[in-house]
Design a protein that fits this description.
The chain is α/β, with parallel strands linked by helices and 397 residues long. The protein folds into two domains: 149 residues, Aspartate Aminotransferase, domain 1; 232 residues, Aspartate Aminotransferase, domain 2, CATH 3.40.640.10. It is built from 13 helices and 14 strands. The strands form four sheets. A seven-stranded mixed β-sheet has the order 2-10-9-8-7-3-4, sandwiched between helices. A three-stranded antiparallel β-sheet has the order 11-14-13, covered by helices on one side. Strands 1-12 form a two-stranded parallel sheet. Helix 5 links the parallel strand 3 and strand 4. The relative contact order is 0.18.
């Protein structure tokens, strides 16, 4: 029996393939130094776990409203709005089983087959996958590496907008390169969106993973609230990656449709987990602060380890938990033609596992350099230092 032709356009999150290779190597008795997956090996704060367990005991184990329980939608509206200087209400919130479902549901809400959607590349590979699977035309835009990190290639974005452009996906505090827009960069992007009447998906999964200063959202700029859907997730902020809880926050007309997709796809998000999330938002702030403090230590250890390797220079980013070093000099020294070959050899030679730029979308035209992505959220400082020492010996040989 034949399967649907449209499946040819369905991609995947290729970092999980790297995870499988690392697991297979570990199953042979090797100690793995896991820098490949943006998971968090820190415990979910105890008050959140206790609230969830109490909700199970209290019988919150059945169906609940498809858009989310009112108490959580109210809490999210206050939390998201306050931190962005805006007012939202429950009608602007649709609770989701994770942040990822927001991508596909947003596109299904605003995009017709044949519409063009701009998306960051390198970037989260599900953007590209969902645009093309749903019949859209995926138009990538890239980044320019500066001494302090990565900037949006605004000129490429301007040149890519056509009468067929319907939306842009914007991931400030970016995965994989940790790019963080300046005020002027964000304002220029917002002006383009208003000028061309574009829908915006603002992926804010790492909004709270910022080590200094206060994060800013494009939704707070003039003309943006009515055209922007925020992808919100509790996975990073509260170390709740496996809980699968997130939300779409935005204009009521879009949120109503996203909630209709909820009814068609999963009925509702797990009730007792939503109860735990209320505690996450409204309870003690100590847990997230401790998580961020530990991530800072890991960031510094990873950056120091990479910068100690001949031919690598990387700036410690102010947000996310990723480092994205250029390793072109390492490939040249080792006479390796493909960055994925370097990744495979590093695993077998050092047991250090990481992703490459090739796991984050098809390369943008005229893209220069070979990059690796190191996620330091799932490995403690002791193992970071051990792994980096092994990697230094291998990369410099």
């Amino acid at each position: 029996m034949e399967l649907a032709n449209q499946l040819d356009h369905l991609g995947t999150e290729t970092a999980f393939a790297v995870s499988a290779a690392a697991a297979a190597w570990g199953a042979k008795g090797n100690k793995i130094y896991p820098f490949h997956l943006g998971d968090i090996n820190l415990p979910t704060p105890a008050n959140i776990v206790e609230a969830m367990q109490k909700a199970i005991g209290d019988g919150y184990t059945g169906y609940c409203p498809g858009a989310g329980i009112p108490e959580l939608r109210d809490a999210l509206a206050r939390d998201v709005g306050t931190k962005r200087g805006l007012e939202y209400s429950a009608e602007n919130v649709s609770v989701q089983p994770g942040g990822k479902p927001v991508i596909g549901k947003f596109l299904a809400t605003v995009m017709n087959p044949g519409d063009e959607v701009l998306y960051p590349n390198p970037g989260y590979p599900i953007y590209e996958s969902q645009i093309e699977y749903q019949g859209g035309i995926a138009i990538p835009y890239g980044y320019i590496e500066m001494e302090t990190g990565f900037n949006l290639n605004l000129e490429a974005i301007k040149n890519s907008i056509t009468p067929k452009t319907k939306a842009i996906i914007y991931n400030n505090f970016q995965n994989p390169n940790s790019a963080e827009s300046s005020d002027s960069e964000m304002e220029e992007l917002a002006e383009l969106c208003v000028k061309h009447d574009l829908w915006v998906l603002s992926d804010e999964a790492y909004f709270e993973i910022q080590y200094s200063g206060k994060p800013r959202s494009i939704v707070s700029l003039p003309g943006m609230k009515e055209r922007t859907v925020i992808l919100y997730t509790c996975s990073k902020r509260f170390a709740m990656t496996g809980w699968r809880l997130g939300a779409a926050v935005g204009p009521k007309n879009a949120i109503d449709i996203i909630s209709k997709f909820n009814a068609n796809i999963e009925s509702c998000t797990t009730h007792f987990i939503q109860r735990g999330m209320i505690e996450a938002i409204e309870g003690s702030t100590a847990g997230p602060d401790e998580i961020l403090a530990e991530l800072r230590k890991r960031r510094d250890a990873t950056a120091n380890g990479l910068n100690a390797i001949d031919g690598i220079s990387v700036t410690a980013p102010n947000s996310t938990f990723y480092l994205f070093p250029n390793v072109s000099a390492v490939l040249q020294r080792k006479n390796i033609s493909d960055v994925n070959i370097l990744m495979e050899q590093a695993l077998t030679e050092t047991s250090v596992s990481f992703c490459t730029r090739k796991h984050f979308g098809r390369a943008v035209e005229d893209e220069m350099g070979d990059y690796l992505r190191f996620a330091y959220s799932g490995i403690d400082v002791k193992d970071i230092n051990e792994g980096m020492s092994k990697l230094k010996l291998f990369f410099e040989s």
